[in-house]
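Internal tracking record. Fields below are filled automatically when a chain is submitted to the structure queue. Please do not edit lines marked as system-generated. If the sequence contains nonstandard residues, flag them in the REMARKS field before resubmitting.
Queue: standard
Priority: normal
Entity type: single polypeptide chain
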Amino acid sequence: MSAVPGGCPGRSARKPANFLPPWLIPTGRSTAIVIGECERAFYGNQFFDLTPIFARHGVQVWLPELCGPYDPGNPVHDLAILQLSAQSRREVLRSRFRTTAAMRAQAREQGRYLGGRPPYGYWLAEAGPHPNRADARRGRRRLRLAPDPNTALVVTWMFTQRLTGRSIAGIARELNNHHVPCPSNEDPQRNRHRTNETWSLRSVAAILENPRYTGHEVWNRQRTDREPIDPTDPSRGYREVLRWNPASEWVISAHIVHPPLVSEQDFVAVQAIRSTRPTADGSRRVYLLAGLLHCGLCGRRMDAHWVNRRPGYRCRHGHTSAKPADAARPGNLYVREDETLAYLHGQFAHLGADLNRHSLVKQLREQRMTIIYNGDGWILGTDADPAPPIPSQRRQDQLF
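SYSTEM-GENERATED OUTPUT FOLLOWS
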């Protein structure tokens, strides 16, 4: 895609509709865009979202398939654009399928490292020439995970402590008391997205849940979804949302491909400790809304909390037993599960009187809904709603 007659290289027509590069703004002479390959320029409704903006600035859009400029008043041109858009989308989906299928095979059969940040406890080491001959001739090398001498022992210690029955909060508190750098402090260049500078419950739990520490390569644990910024106005563009895939969609290598930091037997035992935590009376407590309730004051996910012999949820606004309490934080926020379920039944009564609480919660999870509680009432939202920023405190020094 190029501009005429300026000769400047064009950009993909996936910019928001209110954006035009400066070299496309008319300056007394006719300006046009020539799309040589529609597969690389647009698909879906992108062409029709952008052409009105181009027309407002006096910019024509030329396509070889139309033998000239696009005429918005010509129904034959509209039909041709619809066919080209469908063809472009088919090519994009076909390329995506071929790429993901190849990556699945490489991860499962070859155990190949496919990029991304190495997990805490590992760093990247060379593993011979690149398997692609062209890349190998250019000097590229194959990479694999290798134990980091500064952090591998910390990971092994965490699994050992968990196997003795120690709580996740106790492990995090011990690490913070000995000033052990958390992942964002240990490797800040690769963890710029993290704002926490001390060990939290979630960071410890994520390490204990990561199967890559068994020596197997794991791919497709996360995915990136593109969602419209405004569903009613697709021309405003899209935003990328990172989400976790269910364990059934993970691709795990068939054999061990890098040095393990924990055995498979110990890793499975740690998962059992997390999932079947005993209670004082020997019973198992069930929280139907676990993971669905969010605090309307700080944006955090509310914790399951058993109080007065019934399930409930609370938010301590960032305070855990892993670190000292902050006197400036607001008071704890509590909500009962039965009151929340009563609110949900009132909101979804139109779905049928026979909708029990289990099917109601199932509908919420399938629709990726969240329940926001601020102390005065509930608000239904989606898991893509942005949360307020969470402040962090800084810790330094280290042990181990």
